[in-house]
Amino acid sequence: MTLSRLIARPLLASYFLANGALDLREAPALAAQAAPVTETLAPALDNATPDSVSVPRDPVLWVRASGAAQVVAGLALATGHFPRLSAAVLGGTLVPSTAARYRFWEATDKEQRREQLVHFVKNTALAGGLLIAALDTAGKPGLAWRARHATHDARREAALVGARVRARVS
């Protein structure tokens, strides 16, 4: 792991560790903020899942689940375990969390609107960092590149084997 990744991942994860712990600790208080998002998200997820899967509608449970996911994925990202997956999970929790907490478009007070907008923009910057982390292959070729080259190599090998067989037959 390069020095930049060794430093950057824990720095990026630190926000989610603190935020996830806050969500776990203050879930009942934060549920009121989360309710508008969970009221939209829960039915959409319920429609997208099989009937045998029950999607909870309790905002407190959603806040706790998001907090737990942020702590676990934050620890994984900070320690370099499954960094791409953990960054993707953190990104998945960041979007609804931001939509619930920083609704600057609903603020009536000018100062409150400015503060909410600052936090909203900060979270979009965090989303950008998570996107970079989720797509970072640490210098190794990505899955698509490896698949293309494996196909190319397999075709070349098949052509060579075919040429050898034809040479022996003739």
TrEMBL record:
Superkingdom classification of source: Bacteria
UniProt membrane topology term: Multi-pass membrane protein
Annotated Gene Ontology cellular component terms: membrane
Entry keyword set: Membrane, Transmembrane, Transmembrane helix
A Pfam family annotated for this UniProt entry: DoxX
Record localization: Membrane
Protein name: Putative membrane protein YphA (DoxX/SURF4 family)
Source species: Nocardioides kongjuensis
Classification of source organism: Bacteria, Bacillati, Actinomycetota, Actinomycetes, Propionibacteriales
